[in-house]
Design brief:
The protein is mainly α and 436 residues long. It has helices at 8-38, 49-73, 99-118, 127-139, 143-166, 177-200, 203-218, 233-240, 247-267, 297-306, 309-317, 321-329, 338-349, 351-356, 358-373, 390-410, and strands spanning 2-7, 86-91, 422-425, 431-435. It folds into two domains: 1-94; 95-412, no CATH class. It has a two-stranded antiparallel ribbon. The chain has a two-stranded antiparallel ribbon with strand order 3-4. 39% of the residues are buried.
């Protein structure tokens, strides 16, 4: 174990100097290159300058990450940070010496702070919340930091930290306006950070993390250090609501949702998506126009599939029974049909998917529309459900009607005769002879 001492101001000054130097060199390069082109002079001698600028920027980022990491690991139990003077830290092995290693170490340190918050009892005005938000504000857009942060927290830690921060919004506990605003800001930072992480991780890891996140919410592990007899489904609901996470992550959440729902059905168990406790923060974090579906996890995941055509297609084509079940059988008692309509739309009408999987996408569209139309609660003569998904359903119909019209217009074989019939090729590639 090696003890290392550094001066905070010296490190920050060095990082600032390198950043300033990189900016100056980049400005000079841009000016010189522009003038050279204007005067028709060769600028080949400047070819290595962009690489030099990038190296300076990386060194500056490395030092900034290092000083923030050192400050964070030297914070006290209340989240107070040493902002000046000499501090020390111990190195077990080698000190991080590359930018990626340093960003990973910083992400792990932020996760450690998050773990402290998530495993502590609620404390009104907890100063650690501001510290967490400060670091997420500075490094929240960094892919390596976020990947390390959420990998270190794991699915159950991610849910627990979201809930712990959400407790400060003020719906479950009293909170000042400033504390509530800070909590809402931090929740948004966590959500965005997870979205970034899912795109940085390897696809298989992202898919598994999504699946594990859903399972950890529905059935928390009592042996986990994050375990509390509280509500993880609200955290999951928020993290998945209107998310821009990666396709594989979304696919993982949808597949696990499907698995757990069928298990509950087969065993006659209560819905795994019930909250069981009053909301702690979600109503403050969603759009009022989405309230009809934004409190229901299956509805939310269906909306996520609606925004991720690849994941939606993979989900519905991966198991023939999913279209029939989710479009025709699942009740959506706490949501509505807008999500499943959007999911069917994205899976069946994406131009790329229609070109690559013509028959499969057409089948999803046809079976989805048939399943929806066969619901006992669908249509104006029943309980008038379905209006909320009208735009998506209209798009499916328009897409495939246009396909049929194009096929008809391009057809070179129209038999004559008074009945004016012809051979029709559907979007699925099926030939219908003597169609009127």
């Amino acid at each position: 174990m090696t003890l290392v001492k550094v001066n905070i101001e010296d490190l920050r000054s060095a990082a600032t100097s390198l950043s300033g130097l990189a900016d100056s060199v980049e400005d000079l390069y841009d000016t010189s290159a522009s003038e050279g082109r204007r005067l028709y002079l060769s600028t080949s001698s400047l070819a290595e300058v962009p690489g030099y600028v990038e190296s300076l920027q990386d060194e500056s980022t490395f030092l900034s990450a290092k000083v923030d990491w050192i400050v964070l690991i030297n914070s006290d139990s209340e989240g107070n940070l040493p902002e000046s003077g000499e501090v020390s830290y111990e190195v077990d092995g080698e000190d991080p010496d590359t930018l990626e290693e340093m960003e990973t170490a910083l992400g792990e340190a932020i996760a450690s702070l998050g773990t402290d918050i998530a495993t502590s009892d609620y404390e009104k005005g907890d100063p650690r919340l501001e510290t967490l938000s400060k670091y997420l504000d500075t490094w929240g857009g960094n892919q390596n930091v976020n990947a390390a942060l959420f990998s270190s927290l794991g699915p159950d830690g991610t849910l627990a930290l979201t809930e712990a921060v959400g407790n400060h919004v003020g719906l479950a506990y009293g909170a000042s306006d400033s504390e509530s605003e800070m909590a809402q800001k931090t929740l948004a930072q966590l959500k965005e950070g997870l979205e970034i992480a899912t795109k940085q991780w390897e696809p298989d890891y992202a898919q598994q993390f999504g699946a594990d996140l859903v399972e950890a919410a529905a059935y928390p592990d009592p042996d986990s250090s994050y375990y509390r007899l509280e509500n993880r489904n609200e955290s999951l609901t928020y993290l998945l609501y209107d998310t821009t996470a990666g396709n594989k992550f979304i696919l993982g959440t949808a597949e696990k949702m499907d698995e757990l729902q069928h298990e509950a059905d087969e065993r006659g168990m209560p819905s795994p998506w019930n909250w069981g406790t009053p909301s702690r923060f979600l109503p403050a974090m969603i759009n009022e126009a989405d309230e009809a579906w934004a409190l229901d996890i299956p509805s939310i995941i269906m909306h996520d599939l609606g925004g991720h055509p690849y994941a939606s297609y993979e989900f519905f084509s991966g198991d023939d029974g999913r279209v029939d079940y989710w479009a025709g059988q699942y009740a959506y008692d706490s949501g509505d049909l807008s999500g499943i309509a959007a999911a069917l739309d994205s899976a069946s009408t994406s131009p790329y998917l229609m070109r690559a999987h013509k028959q499969e996408t057409a089948s999803i569209a046809a079976r989805g529309l048939e399943a929806l139309a066969g619901r006992d609660d669908f249509g104006v003569e029943r309980s008038q459900r379905g209006v909320e998904g009208a735009q998506s359903l209209e798009h499916i119909l328009e897409t495939y009607m246009d396909s049929l019209v194009d096929t008809y217009a391009d057809s070179l074989s129209r038999p004559g005769g008074s009945d004016l019939t012809y051979d029709l090729t559907t979007a699925a590639g099926q030939t219908i002879a003597d169609s009127p």
